[in-house]
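Our consortium's second objective concerns turning raw sequence data into structural hypotheses that experimental partners can test. To show how far this objective has progressed, the report includes one record in full. It was chosen at random from the queue rather than selected for favorable results. The single chain below, 246 residues long, was entered without modification.
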Amino acid sequence: MKGYEITTKGLSGNALKVIAIIAMTIDHLAWAGIETYEQAETPLQIFLHCIGRLTAPMMIFFVAEGYYHTHNFRRYLRRLLMLAVVSHFAFCYFNMSGFNPLDNLLFNATSIAWPLLWGLILLKVWDIERLALWHKVLITLGACLLTFTSDWSCAAPLAILMVGRSRGNFYKQMLYLMLIISLYAVAFFVFHNKTYGVVHLACWLAVPLLAMYNGQRGRCKWLGKFFYYYYPAHMALIGFLARLFS
């Protein structure tokens, strides 16, 4: 397989996705009932959210991997589009915010599924040889504008693009991934919240785990699709429980 030597050692894609799911669940449970960032600046909260920072780099990495493994790009695109639509409502319900994404013009107007979708689109765009370079750059800038107010903003599609285009060179992939995430952390620090801008740098902890990726999917073929159901479902459930016990 191009890019990775298949081996039984290390962690399969499924194993890494399970870690991402657990980390994401811990992170989102820690947000339950928290209305402001100031309330979440206790040592325990910060520790739990640092664990949660393992998830986004893995999601970004495996969207890029999925692009090169899929046998049907349109079906993969359709699946991410459906995830983005459903997750928008689950994300807003979880955040106790309005469903209109224009209500929040800074961060977290919609879930990370939206920029993940555009990252996949950008990988396809940059593989179309008949498109001129300026066309590709223009579409990339458009994708950045369309995802700017979402969770992980335009950092997610740009990171997917650079990780995917660097496939076969893990060190280069991680360099681009962490550089883009670090720039997002700086923007979060400056424009949103200083403490959690620093917390986003905990994404670097995902690098050693991704370095253990053995290039194999794993035995559970259903686990990849399971994430598409789990992501919006667990946010909706946590949002419901937060309202029930508040």
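The partners drew two points from this record. The chain has eleven helices and no strands. The radius of gyration is 17 Å. Both points have been shared with the crystallography group to help prioritize constructs.
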